[in-house]
Automatic annotation (TrEMBL):
It holds the Pfam family Exo_endo_phos_2. The keyword Transferase applies. This is Putative RNA-directed DNA polymerase. It comes from the Eukaryota. It comes from Schizaphis graminum (Green bug aphid).
Length: 898
């Protein structure tokens, strides 16, 4: 049998008549025959069905009524390069398809099923085949018989299909023997499973019948004389076979410290040469890295013998059609099914029993369970059409991101823009020479860098950099100091590769449903980290960032900011006042930062050299999108702080630092999440104060070319009184009002009962539990491993913000407690007579309320000495303002008394 890396493409065609009953047999056949693509008819799948097979990707089309009948599916080797095509789903025909290049010719390969109870006419076939490319191979159960492809008789469908195929000039590839074996002896076997193709004449085929998997249909093997395209392994500098000492020596031999670095071009040339030295040394120090495509476990010998016996029994029955032979075949088929199921269960048990956090296998298993698997569907092109190939998708996403990485063209105040440009064009005063970096500075920055970060386009990682010799560190220091002297950020360090990840629960065919992640060169990040360390003292000395901004600041967390908001709401509820809040949604805050505006603010306080260095860092940046194994063309970035950059968070904070404030309102900020709070006993005055602040914000947004999405912003009134505050607007556009709002991960309801938040959290916990239930509810995984999974993946979901909502009404808190009780029972498989208290005691797990007490006391003890007065003010034992306790409810500070 041809191997998957040979010059033949192996396609299996199988009518499963319900794949769930044959999944283990199918997996064995795919592994043993080394099948590249399996076309499955009559899957009986619904939208909830998913039968994964190791090493293969699954594409499926269910019957349109979403019940367990009909349907088609494709299993394709994950190592092959292909494109997913749109599904065809009608009651009379279901099909799913991929596009693959065979001998450099784009060819559609499709699985099809056409139920016999529906009539098919010439137009039905025309409608379906018109969706295909010029070259195709379509395999499935057409339920069509005709003598021309070896059937015993003709039926109406066969006549229509034969007429259609003859007129179009297509070819039918049929197996030499029958594929349908009816149970009744009065019915004769015949050929129902065929291929229809239209391919170049230089591609040849052979078909053969297979005796497995078991079904009332025989599988068909199609061998195509075309090499399947193999997906290349992601390039890496270091492999398991890399000799790191040899790499160290090779780099050391090729480093030349006597170089001229007087111009920016010389710096770029030197960095390019330095990068090439590292890459070449890594490749020379590595042996050939072979790609292993077969990840399936081997089949034991006793199962192979049983498979061979069952194969012989089926061949005998199909040859003689005797009832005794049929019984023998059925007995062997049932025995094989049970043994395969037992073997699979035992393999799963061994896998679960060996899960460990020490070797990383546990986290790989949980990642696989929790990872969002988005279908590889074509992307909708806003200008029309679909993008199916990786190259087309990469180009489409590049164009989409290029529009985002530009300043808002519709937001601009001409006289303010002119003022900014005049200030930037004004002469820069001379500055004293800056202190250069030392090799120890560079080495410490490299040694403290995480090994888990992905590399940029140059493939240099922290692991590679940590193996560099001293001469390389010295050369890197010289390069960085030359860049500092010329106030120039090297061009090669400003290029990013952007990969995209689908957002969960978003339509996968929409461009905005993908989250971009920028991969920057490692050495660029080292330089950024050194620059950040130098400019932070200037930012803190000048008090640029306001105390209300808690984002991207050391010792500042979302919980601190949320506590301030909870205190403001608690105060207003106790004092019978209105707490009118607006939560603003800034559109693409980081990606749309106006470069000239940011430089205007930086020039006001940074030394000239650092200002020019940051200016060089921001300007003339470029990016390229990677989708699958394809890259887009290169595009320029005209706005925004570099995503993934070390300097980007602090630069954004500087840009947003001078937002206006008001004496009648307070502000809570975490990066681009902004809340404005207005408290008053009169609802109209509370809204008036809030509106005055919003009017100031509107002016600021227009000056600095920031766009707020009013439709996604929310206005909420926190009060126990009936009439809400009047609505407010931003730039004359009303902000929608809501009874509750989600801010920094917590859901606030108008009465601050925490009921909506806890209900939302309970749903999220149950969803997470369903994802990893197989890992914690079985008897094979070790108890300590199960507890570690719970503490690492489930418990942090409900303990976030527990300091604030943990003292809510007992009936609300108990909703989370019941989830914890259920999980502990799943972990231990405890019988009903074992109490929840006993489970918590034996497993050393605290109750939700006890955890809330512990969390808040530990959190509160750290507040008094905090450098930010807004946080140190939270250290009081009463609500700030010390309002009279009017309400019969518990606040978070009451946890200190337990």
């Amino acid at each position: 049998m041809s191997s998957p890396t040979s010059n033949s493409l192996l396609i299996l065609l199988f009518n499963a008549n319900g794949l769930k009953n044959h999944q283990n047999e199918l997996q064995v056949v795919l592994q043993e025959k080394r099948i590249d693509i399996a076309l499955i008819s009559e899957t009986h799948f619904t939208k909830y069905s998913h039968i994964p097979i190791t090493g293969y990707n699954l594409l499926k089309t269910n019957h349109p009524d979403n019940t367990a009948h009909g349907g088609a599916a494709i299993y394709i080797k994950a190592s092959l390069v292909y494109q997913t095509l749109p599904n065809f789903c009608q009651p009379n025909l279901q099909s799913c398809a991929i596009l693959m290049h065979l001998n450099n010719v784009p060819t559609t390969i499709s699985a099809i099923y056409s139920p016999p109870r529906h009539n098919m006419n010439f137009q039905n076939y025309t409608d379906y085949f018109s969706t295909l490319s010029h070259n195709f191979i379509i395999g499935g159960d057409y339920n069509a018989k005709h003598n021309s492809w070896g059937c015993r008789t003709n039926n109406p469908r066969g006549n229509i299909l034969h007429h259609f195929i003859t007129q179009k000039g297509f070819k039918v590839l049929a197996p030499p023997g029958p594929t349908y074996w009816p149970t009744s002896l009065r019915k004769k076997p015949d050929i129902l499973d065929i291929f229809v193709s239209n391919t170049p004449s230089n591609i040849y085929y052979t078909t053969s019948n297979l005796l497995e998997p078991s079904s009332d249909h025989s599988a068909v093997l199609l061998t195509v004389s075309a090499a399947p395209p193999i997906r290349p392994c992601p390039p890496k500098l270091f492999h398991a076979t890399t000799d790191k000492q040899k790499f160290h020596d090779l780099v050391n031999q090729n480093i030349n410290l006597k170089i001229r670095l007087k111009t920016t071009q010389e710096i770029d040339d030197a960095i390019n040469k330095f990068t090439n030295i590292i890459q070449t040394a890594a490749w020379d120090a590595s042996t050939t890295h072979r790609q292993h495509t077969n990840h399936s476990p081997s089949i034991p010998e006793y199962i192979r013998i049983l498979i061979a016996n069952k194969r012989r029994a089926r061949a005998l029955y199909q040859r003689h059609r005797l009832p005794s032979l049929k019984r023998n075949f059925n007995n062997l088929a049932n025995s094989l099914k049970k043994i395969l199921s037992s073997h699979k269960n035992q393999a799963q048990a061994n896998y679960l029993a060996n899960l460990s956090s020490k070797d990383g296998s546990l986290w790989l298993a949980t990642k696989k369970s929790l990872q969002h698997q988005a279908p590889n569907t074509p992307l909708i092109n806003p200008s029309g059409g679909l993008a199916s190939s990786d190259a087309d998708k990469a180009e489409l996403l590049k164009n989409h991101l290029a529009k985002i990485f530009t300043p808002h063209s519709d937001i601009q105040i001409p006289h303010h823009t002119a003022l900014v440009n005049r200030f930037l064009d004004s002469p820069i005063p001379p500055s004293i020479p800056l202190k250069y970096f030392t090799p120890s500075d560079i080495k410490n920055a490299i040694q403290n860098y995480s090994l888990k970060k992905s590399p940029g386009y140059d493939l240099i990682t922290a692991e590679v950099a940590k193996c560099l010799p001293k001469r390389a560190i010295v050369l890197l220091t010289v390069l960085i100091n030359a860049s500092l002297r010329l106030a120039y950020f090297p061009q090669l360090w400003k290029f990013s590769i952007i990969i995209v990840f689908p957002k969960p629960k978003k339509p996968p065919d929409i461009l905005s449903s993908y989250r971009p992640i920028s991969l920057l060169p490692f050495l660029a990040k080292i330089f950024e980290r050194l620059i950040l360390k130098r400019i932070l003292p200037y930012i803190f000395t000048s008090n640029i960032i306001p105390n209300t901004q808690f984002g991207f600041r050391a010792s500042h967390s979302t919980t601190h900011q949320l506590h301030r908001l909870v205190d403001a709401i608690s105060f207003s509820l106790e004092k019978k006042k209105y707490c009118s809040c607006v939560f603003l949604d800034v559109s693409q805050a980081f990606d749309r930062v106006w470069h000239e505006g940011l430089l205007f603010k930086l020039k006001a306080f940074l030394p000239p050299t650092y200002f020019l260095l940051i200016k060089s860092y921001l300007t003339d940046r470029h990016f390229q999108v990677k989708f699958g194994s394809s890259f887009s063309s290169i595009e320029k970035i005209s706005a925004g702080v570099p995503q993934g950059g070390i300097l980007s968070p602090i630069l954004y904070n500087v840009y947003a630092a001078d937002q206006p404030t008001s004496p009648t309102t307070s502000v809570a900020e975490f990066a681009d999440d902004k809340a404005i709070i207005s408290i008053h006993e009169d609802s109209h005055i509370a809204s008036l104060n809030l509106q005055n602040h919003l009017n100031l914000m509107s002016i600021w947004y227009d000056k600095w070319r920031v766009q707020v999405n009013q439709s996604k912003s929310i206005h909420t009134t926190f009060t126990l009184r009936l009439p809400p505050c009047p609505e407010v607007s931003l730039s004359n556009i009303p902000i929608p009002s809501s009874q509750s709002v989600k801010y920094l991960g917590l859901t606030f309801d108008r009465r601050l009962t925490w009921g909506p938040h806890i209900r939302t959290k309970k749903l999220a916990l149950n969803e997470r539990l369903r994802s990893i239930k197989s890992l914690i509810s079985n008897k094979h995984t070790k108890l300590n491993t199960k507890l570690l999974i719970y503490k690492s993946l489930i418990k942090p979901m409900w303990t976030y913000g527990l300091q604030l909502w943990g003292n809510a009404k007992v009936t609300n808190v108990n909703k989370i407690q019941t989830v914890q009780n259920k999980i502990l029972r799943l972990i231990t498989n405890a019988p009903p007579y074992v109490s929840n208290h006993t489970l918590h005691t034996d497993l050393n797990i605290k109750s939700v309320h006890a955890e809330a007490v512990t969390y808040y006391k530990r959190f509160h003890n750290r507040l008094p000495h905090h450098p930010n007065p807004l946080i140190s003010n939270l250290a009081s034992h009463t609500i700030p303002g010390n309002p009279t306790r009017r309400l019969k409810r518990n606040w978070c500070r009451d946890l200190l008394n337990e």
